[in-house]
Design brief:
Strand order of the largest sheet: 2-1-3-4-5-6
GO molecular function: DNA binding
CATH superfamily of the largest domain: Response regulator
Structural class: alpha/beta
Shape: elongated
Number of domains: 2
Largest sheet: 6 strands, parallel
CATH architecture of the largest domain: 3-Layer(aba) Sandwich
Distance between the termini: 34 Å
InterPro entries: CheY-like_superfamily, NreC/VraR/RcsB-like_REC, Sig_transdc_resp-reg_receiver, Tscrpt_reg_LuxR_C, WalR-like
Protein name: LuxR family transcriptional regulator
Pfam families: GerE (PF00196), Response_reg (PF00072)
Number of helices: 10
Keywords: DNA-binding, Phosphoprotein, Transcription, Transcription regulation
Strand content: 5-15%
CATH class of the largest domain: Alpha Beta
Length: 216
């Protein structure tokens, strides 16, 4: 796995590089700004980019903008975005163009090495990884959304775990229910959100995006 890291905090940037190299992963470049990050992506064609949300010069959304641009240039690039705070709007913006191979984690998650590496590999394999803290806040806010208010408590729990990028088997294990029950709840979610089987869009992704939109 070839990785580019874009992080303006030198300690975290170099610490990430050391951690990943110790795991046998190939960190091909580390950068401290959006411009140099995009140049590194063009040069090295990595499999995964780890990008800070806030980078110079304004420390607002340069990382998100750079991640979106990097995906435009290299559509198969997996991107794992790191943020110091829960910023649901940024998570929604990032996922708005498709959730495959995308992750959004709080920086504190890096210290939980096993969780961080699991999220990294999930994103590299084409999955989605959204920080549980973000999911928790979205779950609380989603109850105020008129459409999501139609969902039962269990359906909201299933949808929250779907937004973390988890498959049906893992969701069943986390909720201590059968996989067939998960399928039933997902069918209920699709029906209540008006996502018909004949829709061209991926209904699972559409449901997750509807869920994330509730945070705006």
């Amino acid at each position: 796995m070839r990785i580019v890291i874009a992080e303006d905090e030198s300690l975290l940037r170099e610490g990430l590089a050391l951690l990943l190299r110790a795991e046998g992963l190939d960190v091909v470049a580390t950068t401290d700004g959006a411009g140099t990050f995009l140049a590194a992506v063009d040069e090295h064609r990595p499999d995964v980019a780890i990008v800070d949300v806030r980078m110079p010069p304004t420390h607002t959304d340069e990382g998100i903008a750079a991640a979106v641009e990097a995906r435009r240039r290299q559509p198969d690039l997996a991107v794992l975005v790191l943020s110091a705070y829960v910023e649901q709007a940024f998570a929604t913006d990032l996922l708005a163009h498709g959730s495959a191979g995308l992750g959004y984690l709080l920086k504190e998650r890096v210290g939980r090495v096993e969780e961080f590496l699991t999220a990294l590999h999930r994103v590299a394999d084409g999955g989605t990884a959204v920080d549980p803290e973000v999911i928790g806040q979205l779950l609380a806010r989603s109850r105020r959304d008129s459409t999501l208010a139609l969902l039962s408590r269990r359906e909201l729990e299933v949808l929250a775990l779907m937004a973390e990028g988890l498959g049906n088997t893992t969701i069943a294990g986390k909720l201590f229910i059968t996989e067939s029950a998960v399928h039933k709840h997902i069918r209920g979610i699709f029906a209540k959100l008006g996502l018909a089987p004949e829709d061209r869009t991926d209904r699972r992704v559409a449901a997750v995006l509807r869920y994330l939109e509730a945070s705006r």
